[in-house]
Amino acid sequence: MVNLSPAKLVLLAAHYAVEANIPGLTVLATRHGNVLRSDLLLRILLTYLPETLPSSKYVDLIRQIETRSFPDLSDDVVDPSPVEGFTEQEAKKRVRKLKLLPLTAPEGLEEAGLDYEVAASLLLSQTGVREGDLHLVGRDLRGLISPWLFDERRWRKAGSNQESTELCPGWGEVLHWLTIQASKDWKVAVSAFQRWDGPRDADLAGWGSPQLTDDQRAYLEEGYARAALASAYLIPEATLEALDGAYILLSRAATLHNLEPVPPLSSAVSLLPPLTEQIPNELMSARNLLYSRNDLLSTSNPLTAPTDGSVALLQALVLSAHLLSKAGCPCTVRRAAELALLQDEREQKKGVLSLIRAISMNGPKSDDRYWIKARNEMLWLRDWGAEDGWGAAETAPRGVFGQVKKEFLEVEFLKALLASTRYNLACNIYEESPDRPLDEKTLHDTIYATAMAAYDNSSNPNRHRGGLKKCDEIIKSFPKTFPPSSLSAKKVEALLQATHSLSDYRLVLKQGEPFTPVVLRVHTDPIFIIAKILEQNPKSYTQLHTLLDLGNRMVEAGLTAPKTPSPSQPIPDEASQRALTERRIISLCIDAALSEDDFETAYSYVINRLSTPPLVQIEDNYSWKAALEAGKYRRTSRTTLPTHLGMSSSANVAVRHLEQRIDCLATALRIAPAATLQEILSAFRLAEEELDALVKEEQAKEEEWDAKGDAFRSRSATKYKPPPSASSTRSAQLSNTARHRSTDDDDSTAPMSLFDLSRASMLSAQRNLSALSGLQRAATSLAGTLTSSGRNSPAPARDTDSPRGSLDVGAAMQKQMSNASATSGGSESGGGQQQKRVRKRDQLREAAVGTLVSGVGWLVGATPPPREQRDW
């Protein structure tokens, strides 16, 4: 054994410490304890021992130094070569240069007296600061907190001597730190619970196993499990990742406290386990909602108590929040607890509507499996799977939608299916399924309301596009609920047909706003829309049949019925509505025709449509007004000319117009109420006065014309007697010329129809009526003279056809005509002595009818009757 001076022993110990030569240090401490005192040796270790050296290498040496009990190392040899070359002076000089660290650092004096609150925070101040160090959170807790808790000085007793409970205030601070991390940075808390199994998971650096009593261990484990459940409630984010972390926390709590194991989240979301039966009734109280916000670590908090019931409740809440967030309705665990514990029906309905809206917007609309899964999840959120478990009928729904009726959920989901055009799936679930979720009436009303919503949201009145097409498809997708013969289906079809009819017209109800179908359905007076059509579409009044059909469709669709009927005014039946609508539309068309100066069309509608009373008794205030307006109409230069005059009408357009006005006023008199007759009678009297004045004027002109004709023919017959053939030819030419002139004066542009030809013949006969009458009397007188003179035998052909014979007959007829003119006044007053004169009107009618019959016969190629059989 080599004798070394104290200075060289200190240098050798420092050298061994630098080299981490623990056996050499142990030998020096054993043999030279009088020089290498405990404090000196510890300072050497603290200063020169490498930090990378595992603590397990030198823990035994420190324990031996503290207890001064070293093993027997008499046979071990110390190598003094590192310090043999130093002289005593050099060794002392080097010892003085050693800067050994003190065992008690000056900067630690202030922290030496800190209590457990600051101590716990100080120990964990750097834990989880950087996101990349999350995997080290478990190491810090295992190496810092667990050894610190095993110190007996961290524990104190509470309560009486008989029933005392050991408490660890420092452990409470650790749990508080964990919950704070959950609310601030939930990833740190989740990592801590994942990587640290609690106080029993301690890194004592080889100092042995933790020494705790059973009560202490139970106290620590229960607090740790409670902190895990509390941290799940405190996670503030509603992301799927955060909710996955909350599910990890409750799963760890169940595992650490030996509770019923919790299935993985993926399995739970797929299977949707029934959890209602596992949750005690006392946990579902509304007053427990306060415990989800305050006193989460309190032993009196039932929500965070590590029991199977609290774990099942938290599992249901986390799954509910996860399903809602996945669908597109972000929801935290605490929000799910509010919905489930408060049981506020209004808030739950808002949540249902938000969920269904998110399902419709975010998912693949064409995937039926997606919709089926979404429906199952929605129903699970109502009762947490109670229908799948035993005793479902006796258990009230407890889910986040527990206060919402199942019918409400099904109705809203059906609306979403129809809005997303999943008609076949909706029909399979709600109409063809054996256990139909909705009764017939509710199903009918829901489908009808959804179809009308699609109709109201459409912007195009074409039934083959947009919302109208969707409305039609919705109704036809449920043939059992809406058979074609049902009243509802007929109403919808009539509404679609009426709306589609409007697509053919230009229609603007408000300035700058195009017509939309919803206006038709909600308008208090849909016939007003037809009035707008007539106003904005020229000549549309000529489409009376189309407009009447549109009105009938409005009646069938129920649009004309009062929107808010009163008890004093019952709703009229459909027949009355149809009759009144028809009369009103006809009246509107009459007014439109008059506004466009088409009196002929208005007159036709009045005579053909309004003169016949309706089959049902209605209060009609439209027809008589329209007829009255037509009767008041006066011709202008813009008035549309008639296409034909007709057989019974006057050739004078003005007279004919007044006659038509009187007809309209007569119709108004027949259909108007008694209180309005005075106004109509006044208009009627004025029209008659105008007609009488025109007729008198026309008769005066006719008499003047007849007188001029008679005088002209008398002078011509006396002055010049042409041959019969020439006279006949010239008369025919004059007749043709007069006829053409008359026709050209009446209508110089329109082609002459068969009826116009008859009218022209009538006018020609009217102008030459006096000459025809005189000719007839002359012929009769001549025939009598010939008979009395014995010349009643048949004459030879040469006599009748010779110019002389013709001249004699013509002279006789002319003479007879002169005599007839001179004695016309006496013949009229003679009564029974002379032949009764044929009335001018009858002769005119006979001439017109004869011309018409001959013309029609010529047109069809019929053989004319013999001359003696003709009575005209």
Short characterization:
By secondary structure, this protein is mainly alpha-helical. Among the domains are: 6-106, no CATH class; 344-389 and 396-438, no CATH class; 453-564 and 572-694, no CATH class; 738-743 and 753-783 and 838-872, no CATH class.
Question: Could you please describe the fold and organization of this structure?
Answer:
The protein is built from 37 helices and four strands. Helix 9 (169-184) packs across helix 10 and helix 18 (406-419) packs parallel to helix 20 (440-456). The protein is rod-shaped. The protein is mainly alpha-helical and 872 residues long. Helix content is 61%, strand content 1%. The termini are far apart. A hairpin with a 4-residue loop joins strand 1 (156-159) and strand 2 (164-167). Among the domains are: 6-106, no CATH class; 344-389 and 396-438, no CATH class; 453-564 and 572-694, no CATH class; 738-743 and 753-783 and 838-872, no CATH class. The strands form two sheets. Strands 1-2 form a two-stranded antiparallel ribbon. A two-stranded antiparallel sheet has the order 3-4. Residues 726-737 have a biased composition (Polar residues).
Class by SSE composition: mainly alpha
Distance between the termini: 177 Å
Shape: rod-shaped
Total strands: 4
Give the radius of gyration: 60 Å
- Biggest β-sheet description: 2 strands, antiparallel
Instruction: Name the beta content range.
Output: under 5%
Poorly predicted runs: 108-113, 725-758, 764-841, 867-872
Strand arrangement across the biggest beta sheet: 1-2
The portion of residues assigned to helices is 55-70%
The average pLDDT value, as a whole number, equals 80
SS field, number of helical segments: 37
InterPro entries: Sec39_domain
Main location: endoplasmic reticulum
Keywords: Endoplasmic reticulum, Protein transport, Transport
Pfam families: Sec39 (PF08314)
